[in-house]
Write the structure tokens for this entry.
Amino acid sequence: MKNTIFTGMATAIVTPMTADGIDYEALGRFLEFQIENGINGIVVMGTTGENATIEPEDQVKVIAYTVEKVAKRVPVIAGTGTNNTEHVLRNTRAACEVGADAILVVTPYYNKATQNGLIKHFTTVADASTVPMILYNVPSRTGCNLLPKTVAKLAEHPNIAAIKEATGNMAQMVEILHLCGDKLDVYSGEDALTVPMMAMGGKGTISVLSNVAPKQAVAMTDACLAGDYAAAAKLQCDLLPLINALFSEVNPIPAKAAVSAMGYGEEILRLPLTPMEDATRAVLFAEMRKLGIRV
């Protein structure tokens, strides 16, 4: 069995920004907030971190800063995926050099590779990486679905340790668990499916929710890990309105609005993303207040 990168709840963190660049002061405070609230891992430069609109050299700086700030208290997982294999190799080598504990690599968007192409893509990157890889399957964004039989083939690679499954399709997730067994850890990429996924043997969640409610999110996965699925299910249901509000507009628009309102940087996003609409913002902030989160 391969070593597990993390168990429980890992936050796919937003990237605080100023009008001129990255807000490292806010990022540092936000990382401390996450760790103080018991988070089990940090995913930096993922979808929620707006990696698609951050220049490669700035991505490396953010990863390096996160590694230094976290200081091995929890694993740091760096998003290095694009739709260009050579660019992924460049990003991966850079993330490894600055000390990331693992990489997260999304299926190539827009190109929509065949399943054979996906195997070659991920294998090429895994061969070049000096740290374990987490596959990332999110067809709603990429137009490309990494099928269970393909995942099972990739699970044979010694450096491919896990998958972030964000199809929202429980049947597909269960088939991956069935085909891969202990050769591959499975993380939910859907906050609303954390408890069902862990009940089936998933290791945890790579989360947007935990940007805003890390303590409650960790309590949910802790309950699962303790086998108390009744308590976990109640938390899942209690958190569902906030989860829905965090996805009422395209991620990370609501997460950035929430984190900014909590005091971690300005609500600045890079085009084509724009600030949250007033109506959905009001619902989001109302749900945060219900959970005792100050906005």
